[in-house]
Amino acid sequence: MSNTDIELMAHLFRRAGFGSNRQILEEYCNKGYDVAVEELLNPENQPAFDDDLIWRYAPYFRMGTGAPGYQSYWMYRMISTPRQLEEKLTLFWHHVFATSHSKLNRNPQILKQLSMLRENCLGNFRDILMEVSKDPAMIFWLDNCDNHKGAPNENFGRELLELFSMGVGKDNEFNYSEDDVKSAARAFSGWTMAPQLPRYPYGDYNWEFEYREDDHDNDDKTFLGETGNFNGQDIIDIIIKQPATARFISRHLYNFFVADEPQVPSWQTTPPQDIQAIEELEKAYFESGYDIRAMLRVLFNSEFFKNARFQRVKCPAEFVAGVMRLVEDYMEPKPNVHEIAYAATYMGQDLLNPPTVEGWHTGHEWIDSGALVERINFASSQVGDTSKPGVKKIVDRLKELGGEASDGEIVDETLDLVGPLKVTEGRKQDLIRYLEHYRNTYGAQGVFDEKIAGLLQLVVASREYQFA
């Protein structure tokens, strides 16, 4: 197989998943790119994640005493799941429909929301919006439980339009008015939560959705130019057919899977960097009847995706999960996974705790002096441990080069096995100088495994490794 095939397959798995080791990439290269895309797009054909195993091994993950247990569970799932795209999309939707533990303070409820997002991640966008609108975690997070007939609360109705489906505007125009927000809020009155079962003696029970007809505003409403006695599902039916909605979800998918875009609040006045790509995704949105799987099939098979390598800064969750997949650690339950989950928090992404309903700012905003130090320290500590299965495999592959391999050949092969990763010529020369320094310092007494561990630490500390 050509190195071009490996590079493309590695690109696909960095974006549609959290990365894979060389053995898996070579196996998929033998199957072909098209087959790999379809396998990723159809996770139901892959083995399911074994929840029962992790709950038995770490029952404290399910305790309602704070976010870390659930963060640990989710990070372990990102690292070890065979359904990579499914989990990557769950992270994507968690960012779009940002809901925070800081207000809910109910771990099982957030887990239930994540399960809902996971089940619907590749489905119809109408269904996704409906499920989100009926999700008790979202209802509480955005105060729709306080949205009553005659006393509307506009919080959910506003964010449904601004951050969940349409955006404030596009092409320097507004997508909706304040009157549309008010009508949306009135339409969702009565969408609330059923009374909760008592906590004791068995612990917390999840909230359940309840529609209260007597608390719903049944007067006519005018929304985006249409008038009627609208309920929440009518509002969603109007939203999904708007060109603004196609633009909004297309830009989100492009930002998450292709290349860093400006932040959402600027989309009204900042055009997409690749309008042709966005228009292709918009076309797939309407032609498929608002199907996310169909949009991603177009995206992953497009030239604009295949040519967009290393144009996204890895978010902390995918950075951490990617490093762990590289070193092949925590592929099965073992102690201290909470330390791995904490690493993403220290880098600026507190899973289950987005800072606002806007989610996290992405791209270069992930990188500051503190976050970069955390990234480098975490990655170098993992790849510097030669006892980890993935590191041992890299070392063994490099040993196959033989004792006559030049420093340049060792560097090239290392970059190939880690990525393949493209670095500047200056970076490559720095890595070669490290090997020269190691040889001059230790001579024949040098240990090959330790030398390669140090080389790997320099590679993952590089600027280039921060990009997907």
Summary tags:
468 residues, globular, two-stranded antiparallel ribbon, mainly alpha, 24 helices
Protein architecture, described:
This protein is mainly alpha-helical and 468 residues long. The chain has 24 helices and six strands. It has helices at residues 3-16, 22-31, 33-41, 51-57, 68-80, 84-96, 101-104, 107-120, 125-133, 136-141, 155-165, 178-187, 232-240, 243-257, 275-287, 292-301, 303-306, 316-327, 337-346, 369-383, 389-399, 407-418, 425-442, 448-460; strands at residues 169-170, 173-174, 191-193, 209-211, 221-223, 226-228. It has a two-stranded antiparallel sheet. A two-stranded antiparallel ribbon has the order 3-4. The protein has a two-stranded antiparallel sheet with strand order 5-6. Strand 1 (169-170) and strand 2 form a beta hairpin. Helix 23 packs antiparallel against helix 24 (448-460). The longest helix is centred in the C-terminal third of the chain and has 18 residues, at 425-442. The radius of gyration is 24 Å and the shape is globular. The two termini are 23 Å apart.
